[in-house]
Amino acid sequence: MGEQMIRFIRFDSTGAVAEETARRISAAARRAIALRGRFLCVLAGGRTPLTAYDRLVHQPEDWAHWHLFLGDERCLAPDDPERNSRAIASALTERVPIPSVNLHWIPAEAGAESAARRYDALIATQMPFDLILLGMGEDGHTASLFPGHETPADVRAAPVHEAPKPPPDRVTLTPLALAAAPERLILVTGAGKREALAAWRRGADLPVARVAALGRTDVLMDPDAAGD
Ligand SMILES: O=C1O[C@H](COP(=O)(O)O)[C@@H](O)[C@H](O)[C@H]1O
């Protein structure tokens, strides 16, 4: 595993990244449901994937067999607009008939330690996933794995404190969980991501680089992020 497993794919527009993301999620869902009767997908938080989630709503899917998980969550009240699960609900899950028992959100309102312990136990019974979707922050973080933070190697979900991006308290999947899928899709759009993406491609040791190197990973980039 390593660099040869990572493909950086440049699209002509941010819309094309969203279109391709929705197409790939849908294709992975169809494959998984045909093979095993259910689709287990880890969704990315943040703003970047919301357009792709919105596009999924308009596709005919076998929603009853979708199971959704989160790569990370922010320790805020469940209805706080900055919660990843809240943004995903508005963009996707409130608009399609995925059974609510299939929405495996991180109970981050319980506090980072307790939520991480509970999520670790839950996903231990569900892994491996069929697809893992991730974003990247301007500092090269992915999920809530931030540069300079230690990540425990022996758990699947970990508490995060003093995150440089608000809020400081979070829960993140760890590399142990993020390795547990045949493929990862990392979405990188916008000029704000250009510097970190370029540093990653030059070989910088960033959290996103470490996660991408866990196995087969496609990085979908728009022109602003990719630069020339
Ligand atoms: O805080 C977070 O940041 C990253 C990137 O977010 P974006 O808004 O720039 O797309 C995101 O991937 C992560 O899930 C989120 O909690």
* Poorly predicted spans: none
How do the strands of the widest beta sheet line up side by side? 1-10-9-6-2-3-5
How many domains is the backbone divided into? 1
User: What separation lies between the terminal Cα atoms?
Assistant: 28 Å
CATH fold node name: Rossmann fold
- What integer is the average pLDDT? 97
Ligand roster: the ligand O=C1O[C@H](COP(=O)(O)O)[C@@H](O)[C@H](O)[C@H]1O
Tell me what portion of residues adopts beta-strand conformation.
15-25%
- The total count of helices amounts to 8
Q: Biggest sheet, open or closed, and with what strands and sense?
A: 7 strands, parallel
What share of residues is helical?
A: 25-40%
Describe the protein in words.
Residues 15-212 form the Glucosamine/galactosamine-6-phosphate isomerase domain. Belongs to the glucosamine/galactosamine-6-phosphate isomerase family. 6-phosphogluconolactonase subfamily. By secondary structure, this protein is of the alpha/beta class. The protein has a single domain (3-226), classed as Rossmann fold. 33% of the residues lie in helices and 19% in strands. The strands form 2 sheets. The chain has a 7-stranded parallel sheet with strand order 1-10-9-6-2-3-5. The chain is globular. Bound molecules: ligand LXAUTJHC. Residues 44-48, 71-72, 84, 135, 137, 143-144, 165 line the site of the ligand O=C1O[C@H](COP(=O)(O)O)[C@@H](O)[C@H](O)[C@H]1O.
